[in-house]
Amino acid sequence: MKTWALIVDTWREALARYTLLGFLAVSSLFLLILTFALNLDIVDGALAAGTLFGKAFDLPGKGPAIDTVVVTGQSVFAGMLYVLGVFLAVFATGSQVPNLQHRGTVDLYVTRPIGRTHLLLGRFLGAATLVTANLLFLCGGVFVVISLKTHVWNARFLAASGLILTVFLSYLGFMYLIGVLTSSTPLSIMLPYALYLLSLPLAAHDRVAAAMDSRLAASTIHTLYWVFPKTAEIGRDLTTYVLGKATPAFVPLATTVMFGAACLAVAVVAFNRKNF
Amino acid sequence: MDIPPTVIAVRRLTKEFRHWGRRLLALDRVDLEVHRGEVFGLLGANGAGKTTLVKILLGLARPTAGDVLVRGSSPRRPGTRRRIGYLPEGHRFPGYLTGDASLRLFGRLAGVPEKALDARIPELLELVGLGERRRDRVGRYSKGMTQRLGLACALLDEPDLLFLDEPTDGVDPVGRRHIRDILLQTREHGTTIFINSHLLSEVERTCDRVAILHEGRLVRQGTVQDLTAPSRRFRLRLADGQSMLPERLAEDGWRVVTNNGHLEIEVADLEALNRLVDRLRADRRLIAEISPVRTALEDVFIEVVEGEEHSPGSLENGSRTGVHGPGGDR
Ligand SMILES: Nc1ncnc2c1ncn2[C@@H]1O[C@H](COP(=O)(O)OP(=O)(O)OP(=O)(O)O)[C@@H](O)[C@H]1O
Ligand SMILES: [Mg+2]
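Above: inputs. Below: predicted complex with magnesium ion.
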């Protein structure tokens, strides 16, 4: 019941602060543009002609198999959603912990007969359900629009939203840590973005480290690579997976999840030790 | 008379805040006990450490040193906080909730069953006078309304221990009386109540026992009766038309002040008081009234706080004389 109350509370907050609405609005906009922009003529299971953003493309002779076109398109969209989804989700959940820790508010929550771990994890669960629903709307919507228009149903695209969610949850762990330590919404939003950007070039850590002068710098780069989320690799895996070429590698995913879990664990410990 | 069980036991409690190397001693070796069914008032000037003490009693903050037991166990344990009500100082309910929804949320977090909440929430909102505004968002409440909601929230769990930090802050006089009535009613059910306040007249009317905190130290504690009991000061009124010049009494060595038509006399003990009566009767003066002067709590408070700067406080109460009379000159 307490957990349920916390989840409901998270949703209420998101609703009242228009974060949920904002997320849905941006997602819907994206879907609408997609619906009207994408127009394909299909003849005998092959792409005969189509328009994308009003630009017609004719394909002389027998075009490529529709499946290939759709799947390629989907993999591009998956890549876009990977960025957009995480971006929106971070934005939607950034104020959660700072709001909870607000002076005068935290007193009300923390003095209830509920453990602080339970409290924080309950809110985390709330945020997770919120973002899951949002991502399902966004990715599911894209999936349905593309599939209806092309009659190609590629379930891998849906599974890809699971990957996006996993990466986001790791970032959410990081956001909780920032939130607990600083009680600052701007930092809780900015630092995950910074981490996101920073982790991209780290995929090339081997080459970056090789270019370093000192050994210390080189090993720092390697360490950062292993500690931080493997944003770039997972993004790459995501697109190839949607294409049906490969299954995502385990190690980048596992270390990314570990990063999030470790951040969340530290956040819980810090929250428990805090004086309010 | 046997003493009811101890609900709050604080021993040598010290709390030091450290911030960028600067230290601030908010509580300094505080010893305190509150018994079941008592209404206890903690008094102190701004920054004396009242809120800090309550926060430690609720597990919000951790002591630097010393022991704190609430109902025999540590307030940091969630189970200890069952059936404890708390009205925090300057609390802020999430603005997006309605009055109704706030109580439901915090009731659920307290583990109150849904059925009980259905019945209790409207009842409590009615009790604190928010019945008509229950579906409004808390963000649109006035200060006093928020405070009332806070009180309702504190009472949600049918607490047997209630902490109130400045309960009437921002509440109008009618509301204050109303809150006082609610507290007295709550107390009838055996709830122990711990009030932080600097509204002394209010504490005086509500509390059984008070303690005065000064710069983190507990400098005085006792029943309101004890603290305000006087004194060796008596008020003396002669029958109408009779007078006794204070100067004449002063010549005889009495310490006298006139106070709108009365004489206020300070005597060493009852023996001295009776000698004074003899003296007046020898002069054939007709005495209409003799009563001990009770100090208002406010005077005690100011005296203690000001006196603290000069001498270290003692925990003893003011001495009591054997004469009782219709006290109170406030
Ligand atoms: N979190 C904190 N960090 C640093 N210092 C603090 C903190 N909380 C309280 N203090 C300091 O501890 C002292 C006691 O504060 P406290 O809030 O307990 O006072 P109070 O008796 O409740 O005062 P008031 O009547 O104004 O509410 C003050 O000097 C205050 O500045
Ligand atoms: Mg205070």
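The domain at 230-294 of chain B is CATH 3.30.70 (Alpha-Beta Plaits).
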